[in-house]
């Protein structure tokens, strides 16, 4: 066991000691004060250690100050190592944990220029052998709770970038489903026409959260899949992909909102990745990859890479494709990748576990397990 004293308080750090020091790029020193100092310090350390961007040091780093005299409102400040005030904010999110996680995300954004993931949430599907249900959890897998969809079975979820709404496929029967949207604080409503019922489908929110793209396949003719857009909860006349000669699957928006990427069969026993514009009628463009079986593409929020799955003789593996260089990097065994807001972490499934992986270090962590077969994670941004 190891103990770290970065703000005058000894805290158990056995869990975090396996994190390589080089993995965290920005040194910070914590300065909690007031009657809640120990609780605030513990919460801040946890948030920074689990997000892997900032490294806690005893001195010389940017100063992260936190105080909460009344236990309700927390004042947070970030002062650079040279003494310049970078920001000062008051936080009132209902608990010390949420206040500290929001402060950690704000510090990460100020120092790295990238959003943090400490306040983010992940939605995933869990299968018990008979039906599929949706669940939501915090970025670290804690606070798992069920999403009431009102359907016997639901899957294919896509949580909106800000986390206010979840789109999903509600299954009425073994071969039929409807596209639904649910506010996390309200009821579900159907957005696909009642006369049009789909079997399989994949959903993805645009980066601004205003448009939902859906790749939908008829129950008995999956090769006749199509990509349609829903704006303001209504299906538009824009049908980007219609009557595909092969079976398309998976779906993800580019960060600029100008195109979608999806997977499709390219030949018997082979599949690849394709992009198609969202505002043009151009034909899909194939992405050249060195492996014969590619699926489940997901754009990183910064656009620098695309996560996907390569199916091989020894199982499925997460991979990264870098459009600027055309290079491919293999990460770990697993499937259904979805990027976090920081363009560094990916949530994915191994079947029985929901995991996250730090793509800079290759470190993978189990965040949810013992919930049947876990699939289709989707992460707020």
What are the main properties of this structure?
381 residues, mainly beta, Double Stranded RNA Binding Domain, Neuraminidase, 7-stranded antiparallel β-sheet, 5-stranded mixed β-sheet, 2 helices, 30 strands, 8% helix, 50% strand, disordered N terminus
Structure description:
The longest helix is centred in the N-terminal third of the chain and has 17 residues, at 96-112. Helix content is 8%, strand content 50%. Strands 10-9-8-30-29-28-27 form a seven-stranded antiparallel beta sheet, with no helix packed on it. A five-stranded mixed beta sheet has the order 4-3-5-6-7, with helices on one face. Strands 11-12-13-14 form a four-stranded antiparallel beta sheet, with no helix packed on it. Mean pLDDT is 87; it is low at 1-22. It contains two helices and 30 strands. It has two domains: 3-112, Double Stranded RNA Binding Domain (2-Layer Sandwich); 121-379, Neuraminidase (6 Propeller), CATH 2.120.10.30. It is globular. It has 381 residues and is mainly β.
